[in-house]
């Protein structure tokens, strides 16, 4: 449709086109197979973990409820992003409707915020377990987990919902090709004819407020944990305490490292191919999701034993 605005003619569109790896088209060929493998691994591992925790009553404890929440978030993020990327790679299905694009944008932003907040609650759980073990059963209760889940959901949705709303209110004309594999906020907003300063500022402020505060609280929790662990004098107590936190700490490293590398590449994007941030953005939606349940399954003895028991029963 052609519309006149301020004396000029602009073309309005009903959908966007996702243009993956414009400068490195060969990446689509070699990336599709490992990406498919990571998707199947993420879905299989997370669903296995969820079923294991659901079927085994001995795992119906607050820590494992938080792990179930993390697995659920990972599963939704993978299914929201990666199948569309593979459809582009295999069938060149680059078109995506406005609604689907902004909905994907909302899911990505809100669920990553929920995942970050879940890590923060898990860090608090470990802090109470090690620094205040006698009070742990009275502090970390099922009621606490319910309240924490409501807080995680409401905080993340409330603070990230303006991102797709601000992008959706923009006027898109002239161009509808998104230079990305996914509907990232700034990749979409750049196509607008309007000023996007507010979008940039909210993305920056909201992102660092959510992720920055969570990482700070996680750092403080582990500082207190480390200080408490070093005071333990019982033989083997230090190793046991660190082991209980090891899995959680590795998951945080997966999540934050890829995120920080992605932010770094955006800062220095003029010195490298613009396809590199796109690649990291795609991988960030599947690598942590694939590794999180595996790390917990391998490092947590209780989960490993239950999975082995269920496999012997044939489920």
From TrEMBL:
Gene Ontology terms describing biological process: cellular response to lipid
Transmembrane segments: 35-55, 67-90, 96-123, 144-166, 208-230, 242-266, 278-298
Family annotation (Gene3D superfamilies): Rhodopsin 7-helix transmembrane proteins
PROSITE patterns, A to Z: G_PROTEIN_RECEP_F1_2 (PS50262)
Membrane topology per record: Multi-pass membrane protein
Residue ranges of domain G-protein coupled receptors family 1 profile in the record: 45-296
Protein's UniProt name: G-protein coupled receptors family 1 profile domain-containing protein
């Amino acid at each position: 449709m052609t519309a006149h605005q301020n004396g000029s003619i602009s073309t309005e569109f009903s959908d966007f086109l996702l243009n993956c790896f414009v400068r490195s088209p060969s990446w689509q060929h070699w990336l599709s197979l490992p990406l498919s493998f990571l998707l199947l691994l993420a879905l299989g591992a997370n669903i296995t973990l969820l079923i294991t925790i659901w079927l085994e009553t001995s795992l119906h404890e607050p820590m494992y409820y938080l792990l179930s929440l993390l697995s659920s978030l990972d599963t939704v993020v993978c299914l929201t992003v990666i199948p569309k990327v593979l459809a582009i790679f295999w069938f060149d299905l680059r078109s995506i409707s406005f609604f689907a694009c902004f909905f994907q944008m909302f899911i990505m932003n809100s669920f990553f915020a929920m995942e970050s907040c879940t890590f923060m609650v898990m860090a608090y759980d470990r802090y109470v377990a090690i620094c205040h073990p006698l009070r742990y059963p009275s502090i970390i209760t099922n009621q606490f987990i319910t309240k924490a889940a409501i807080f995680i959901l409401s905080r993340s949705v409330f603070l990230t919902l303006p991102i797709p709303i601000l992008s959706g209110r923009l006027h898109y004309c002239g161009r509808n090709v998104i230079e990305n594999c996914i509907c990232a906020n700034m990749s979409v907003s750049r196509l607008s004819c309007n000023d996007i300063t507010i979008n940039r500022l909210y993305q920056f402020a909201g992102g660092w407020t959510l992720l920055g505060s969570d990482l700070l609280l996680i750092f403080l929790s582990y500082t207190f944990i480390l200080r408490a662990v070093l005071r333990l004098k019982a033989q083997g107590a230090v190793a046991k305490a660190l082991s209980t936190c090891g899995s959680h700490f590795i998951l945080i490293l997966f999540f934050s490292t890829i995120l920080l590398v992605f932010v770094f590449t955006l800062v220095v994007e003029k010195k490298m191919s613009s396809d590199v941030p796109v690649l990291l953005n795609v991988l960030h939606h599947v690598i942590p999701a694939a590794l999180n349940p595996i790390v917990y399954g391998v490092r947590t003895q209780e989960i490993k034993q239950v999975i082995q028991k269920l496999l012997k029963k044939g489920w």
